[in-house]
Write a structure and sequence with these properties.
By secondary structure, this protein is of the alpha/beta class. The protein has helices at residues 12-30, 50-58, 129-140, 156-166, 212-221; strands at 3-7, 9-10, 34-38, 63-65, 86-87, 102-106, 109-117, 146-152, 172-176, 186-187, 193-195, 200-203, 234-243, 250-259. The strands form 2 sheets. Strands 1, 2, 3, 4, 5, 12, 13 and 14 form an 8-stranded mixed beta sheet that branches. A 6-stranded mixed beta sheet has the order 6-7-8-9-11-10, with helices on one face.
Length: 262
C-alpha cells in the first residue's frame, strides 16, 4: 500500500536542517514511500535556491512544491528549469518558467504532484485554481496512478471548497501557506484525503517562523522592518496518507508532528 508523507512549508535554516536530519528515520518509522515537501520558504524564510532544492532532494524529498514566494530569491527563475523534482504553482501565467507538475515513481506506482494558488488575499497573478486543478487532473490521467494536490491558499473557505470539488478524483488535497497546522484532517466521503493546512517545518517559537519581537513591533507601530527567522521549538509538521493502489484514492489520513527536542 503506497504511503505519501507530505511536509508543510519548510522555513529557513532551522526548518531545512531538521528535515535533513530527521527525514530518513521518519520515513522508516512511518513506512512512507513518497515524500513531498513545500519548500518555498526554505531560503532565509522567503523563496528557494537551486542549491537548497538539491540538498532537500539528496535528503530524501522526492518532490518539492512552491507557492506565492516562488520568485523571492534572485535568479531562481533562471534555475528552476534545471530542477526536475521541483514544480511551481500550476496556475501561474504560462510565461512563467518551471514545471507545472512532477510525477514521482516508486515500485511501479506513480504519483502526480501539483500546486494551485488561491486567489483570495494573495497578490501573485494566477488563474482559477478550480479550473486549473480540473485541467491538470485530466492531463495526468494517463501519466500516473494517483494525484496529490497542494492548495497554497490564504482563505480556509477556498481550500475546503477545492477539497470537496476534487473529492473522489485526487488522492489528497492538502493546504499550505498559513504555517499553522489545522485539526480538520480526514478522508472525504469519496476517497480524497483533506487537510486545510499542514503547518510548517520550522521554528514555532515565533510568529509563523519569524522572530516574534520584530513582528510584534511592526503590529504596534505599523513600520516595515526585517523579520529574521526564529530559532526555537523546531518541529516537522505534515501528514501521512495511505493510498489504495487499485483506485488511487486515500484509505487513511494521519497528521504528523515531530519536535526536535522531544
Amino acid at each position: 500500500m503506497p504511503k505519501i508523507l507530505f511536509l508543510g512549508d519548510i522555513v529557513g535554516r532551522p526548518g531545512r536542517a531538521f528535515v535533513k536530519e530527521r527525514l530518513a528515520s521518519l520515513c522508516e518509522e512511518t513506512g512512507a514511500d513518497f515524500v513531498i515537501a513545500n519548500a518555498e520558504n526554505s531560503a532565509g524564510g522567503a523563496g528557494i535556491t537551486k542549491k537548497i532544492a538539491e540538498e532537500l532532494t539528496a535528503a530524501g524529498v522526492d518532490a518539492i512544491t512552491l507557492g506565492d514566494h516562488v520568485w523571492d530569491q534572485k535568479n531562481f527563475e533562471n534555475e528552476i528549469d534545471e530542477l526536475d523534482t521541483v514544480c511551481r504553482p500550476a496556475n501561474l501565467p504560462k510565461q512563467n518558467p518551471g514545471r507545472t507538475h512532477v510525477v514521482i515513481e516508486k515500485g511501479g506506482f506513480r504519483v502526480g504532484v501539483f500546486t494551485v494558488l488561491g486567489r483570495n488575499y494573495l497578490t501573485l497573478k494566477s488563474s482559477c485554481p478550480f479550473q486549473m486543478a480540473d485541467a491538470k487532473l485530466a492531463e495526468l490521467a494517463d501519466q500516473c496512478d494517483a494525484v496529490f494536490v497542494e492548495s497554497h491558499m490564504e482563505a480556509t473557505s477556498e481550500k475546503i471548497a477545492l477539497g470537496w470539488h476534487l473529492d473522489g478524483r485526487a488522492a489528497a488535497v492538502v493546504g499550505t501557506h498559513t504555517h499553522v497546522p489545522t485539526a480538520d484532517g480526514r478522508v472525504l466521503p469519496n476517497g480524497t484525503a483533506y487537510l486545510s493546512d499542514a503547518g510548517m517545518c520550522g521554528p514555532y517559537e515565533g510568529v509563523l517562523g519569524r522572530d516574534s519581537s520584530q513582528v510584534i513591533a511592526s503590529f504596534l507601530d505599523g513600520m516595515k522592518r526585517r523579520f529574521p527567522v526564529a530559532e526555537g521549538d523546531v518541529r516537522i509538521c505534515g501528514c501521512l496518507i495511505d493510498v489504495d493502489p487499485a483506485t488511487g484514492l486515500a484509505l487513511s489520513f494521519e497528521r504528523i508532528e515531530v519536535a526536535k527536542d522531544a
